[in-house]
Predict the 3D structure of the following.
Amino acid sequence: MAVKNFVVKESYNDSVVLMNAANVVRKKFGVKDVSAVMATPQNLELLSSLGLLSDGGKSAASSDLIFAVKTNDESAAAEMFKEFKSALAAAVPAEKSEGEIKNFDEALDSDASLILISIPGWYVRAEAEKAIRKGKNVMVFSDNVSLEDEIFLKNLAKEKNVLFMGPDCGTSIINGKGLGFANVVRKGNIGIVGASGSGIQEVTTIIHKLGFGISQAIGVGGRDIKKEVGAISMKQALDFFETDSETEAVVIISKPPDEAVAAEIIEKAKNSKKKYVINFLTLELKDFENISFASTLEDAALKACRLFDERVEVAKEDVNLKKIGGKFLRGLYSGGTLNYEALYILRNFEIYSNTPIDKSRKMKNPFKSEGHCLVDMGEDEFTRGYPHPMMDFTLRNQRIVAEARNPDVGVILLDCALGWGCHPDPAGELAGAVAEAKKINPEIVFITSITGTDADPQDYAQQKKKFEDTGVFVFPTNRQAVLAAKEVVF
Amino acid sequence: MLIETVAYDSNIGKINLKELSLKKSYKNSCYFSTSRGQIVTFLKNPNQLVPLGIVVRENVFAEIKDKKILSAEIFAGVAIELKLPEKTHIPEYCAQIVSKIWRKMEILFKAEIESIIQAGKYEKLVGAGEGLTPLGDDFLVGFIAAKKVRGEGIKSDFDFSRTTELGRHFLVNAVRGNFSRNIINFLKDGDLSILDYGQTSGVATAMGILNGLGLKK
């Protein structure tokens, strides 16, 4: 074995590029002992202790790059170094093509009326402020925007008379175009204002399934209804719908707002010329003349459609589920509001969660199931370092298989979101994990809903079939899926 | 050149930004050295702030990144103090995720670096391993951050001349108590976005923090 060192003077390639280039060499030449490191004294010592330092490398300085290989064939070493250098050179990023908007300034100067911002929350304020001042409507997909920034931006948007959606707003449908995670739904006369993404998806898809359509769906972010923010964006959206000739009924979806905020929203709705359906999830109130309160997302969609046709019914899925007592229910959700809706429907049972309605039922560790539990896998603890579970199934699939290893688990309850922004084949992803889980424990009952429409890019019928072929019971709404799970376990 | 910023390390105010000379520019960052050998990094928004870092918008970054010599005067943006949080709370599962990724990661000199850590010979980490900021430096920066948060002393006999210019920059700043935003956020509440930083840098830094806090699994 011969050791050969090559030195690149004053090299400042970043580690990603260096490691990739070293890997190219390892693969192409089938050799293991390839190192590309900065020639610090410590690294020279390490190379030497591994027998990878030759005379050529000993005189290198800290700012130099040292490429060390161990090989039988001395001429091959030179070939490897050549390959390494060409891999380094190839790592120059490609330039963008002409015609598309290349940077934020171009977006600001373009005639676009809406700008979607999806950057770490900490930088949102400066960019969003610029967009608002340029008279653009803004949707902020990012989370981790401080409350102070949110209030500042929302007040500014109100002053400039533009719409501010978000932050942490997963879903909006504006002029028939989906933003964030959004389904393809019919255009219609129902306007939606929602503080949550998955709630908007669920309600808009059910409305579509019932034969009705959406004028606009405006996501305002989960904190809008807190007393500090005072529903600035929600109220602005309601004002918009009030004068919008397309919109005849408005559906509001959010977790229970702070008391004063709820009173203000209801007062505004009461004084409106439009009809309202309100779903504050766990907060059910008595109806007013033009306001109906809904107890679930399905109920909200149904009530909205019934304003126009009393005969509509949500299709029921007839399935034959056997009761199995004494086993645990485990819900693994990607949609936060669907998880919350499930917790509310099952509020009379002892169920734990990372986002419980009753604080005493908070899971000790969201990564470890206990008793009956429903886990919102779109929460921060799961999305840090991973994309959202509607796009990336790594964590959810691992968890499905892990749950199957526990013989006490009887039912696994899932959700599956279709639409733009979501995974191109979510059922296929989940079905793979279900099949693996079933090999471990064939007794487990899998139940899911599909949040989607026949117009979604994923092909609803095909997605449903993928589930059914793996033995998953599929329901058209989350409420129905939850009730089915309840029948089996409790 | 007048440069509009988004945010910058508040210590930038103490630095002479005349006659910066370009060391290297990448897709999302470029760094210069000052006449006194300090490293000033320009980051394309929305990258996380680093000690003596300046975050600028994309179009500004495009103008800066190829300037061999830059005399900068900055305006606008927010001055950020890159100070450690007073308290640290890293949930156990965050620690588990970091350890798991570290275990799975294929790193040059991994066995050697791990035995240095085991033996507590932290001075030997300076300049050890892959990367322009060698991996050992990343680990050590995290380790120093953890010790500082806990109010514990650290050995000061590190020989920072034994590493690269960039590695030295982060180590020197760490000793002075200036840390990247990623590190601050991870220490505060286990924010795992630190793991996205570089191919291995973030993970190594997080491992250093866990070691320093005695949380290693």
